[in-house]
Amino acid sequence: MVKYGLDYTRCRWILPLLLGIGVIFGIIALAGRGWLESQTLPYVHQASLWESCRRPGEGGEWTCESLMGYAWGRAAAATYLVGFILLVICFALAIIAFAIDTLRFNFIRGIGGLLFVAAVFSVMGLVIYPVKFSTEIEMTGINMFSWAYGFAWTTAIMEICLGFFFCCLPNYEDQILGNVKPTYFYSSP
User: Fold this and answer.
1) Residue 145's beta-bridge partner residues?
2) pLDDT tens for the chain, residues 1 to 189
3) What is the distance between the alpha carbons of residues 108 and 16, in angstroms, rounded to a whole number?
4) How far apart are CA 144 and CA 31, in angstroms?
5) Rounded to the nearest 10 degrees, what angle do helices 147-168 and 14-31 cross at?
6) Neighbours of 159 (CB within 10 A)
7) How far apart are CA 189 and CA 110, in angstroms?
8) DSSP line for 141-179
9) Count of alpha carbons within 13 Å of 40, Cβ hemisphere only?
10) Which numeric CATH code is attached to 8-34+71-139+148-170?
11) Domains of the chain: which residue ranges?
C-alpha cells in the first residue's frame, strides 16, 4: 500500500473491508451444515459445528444428534465462537479507527493484537473439532471435511494475516500520512 504510492485516503478502507469479509465467512461457517459430509454414495452423513446428522440409506430420513452433549463439542463450539466474537469486535474497532480523520496508530496495533487472540481461539476450535469428531463419532464410508469447515479455516487464516497487517501498519505512519519527502534517484551527468 505504501511502497507503490497508493494514497492513504483512497486505501484506508481496505483493511476494514477485509475484516468484514472475514466476518461474513465466519457467519457462513457457523451456520453451515457442511463441516463434515459423506464423500461417496450413499450420502449418509452430514455434520455442522452444532450437530451430526445421518440417515440409514439414500432415501431415508435424516436423524440428528446434538454435538453439545459432548464436552469436546461444547469446547469446539465455544472456542470458535469466542474467536468469531473477537473478530466482530475487531471489525467494529477498525471501522471506528479508520473513520477518525487523525488515525490513531497505537489503537490500530491493539486491533492487530486482538486479531491474533481471535486467531488462537478459532484455530483451537478448528483443531478440536476434527480430532475428537473422528474418534468419538462413528462414521460410515468415506467422509470429508467440507465447505463450511473450509470457510472456518479461511476466517482463521484471515485473522492471522490481518493481525500482521494491523500490527505492521504503524511502522509506516510517516509514509501513510505524507510526512516524508520523496527520494529521487536521479543524478545529473
Assistant:
1) 36
2) 445 444 555 667 888 899 999 999 999 999 988 888 877 777 778 888 899 888 877 677 888 888 898 999 999 999 999 999 999 999 999 888 877 766 666 788 889 999 999 999 999 999 999 898 888 887 777 788 888 999 999 999 999 999 998 888 766 665 555 566 666 676 666
3) 11
4) 18
5) 150
6) 27
7) 49
8) S-EEE-HHHHHHHHHHHHHHHHHHHHHHGGGGHHHHHT-
9) 4
10) 1.20.140.150
11) 8-34+71-139+148-170
Question: What is the biggest distance separating any 2 CA atoms in the chain, rounded to whole angstroms?
Answer: 85
What are the φ/ψ torsions at residue 172 (nearest 5 degrees)? Answer: -110, 30
Global confidence as pTM: 0.83
Provide the residue count of the chain.
Answer: 189
| In the block, residue with C-alpha cell 497508493 | 6
Q: How far apart are CA 65 and CA 57, in angstroms?
A: 17
Q: Are 123 and 76 in contact (CB under 8 A)?
A: no
Neighbouring residues of 92: CB distance < 8 A, sequence distance ≥ 6? none
Amino acid at 46: Q
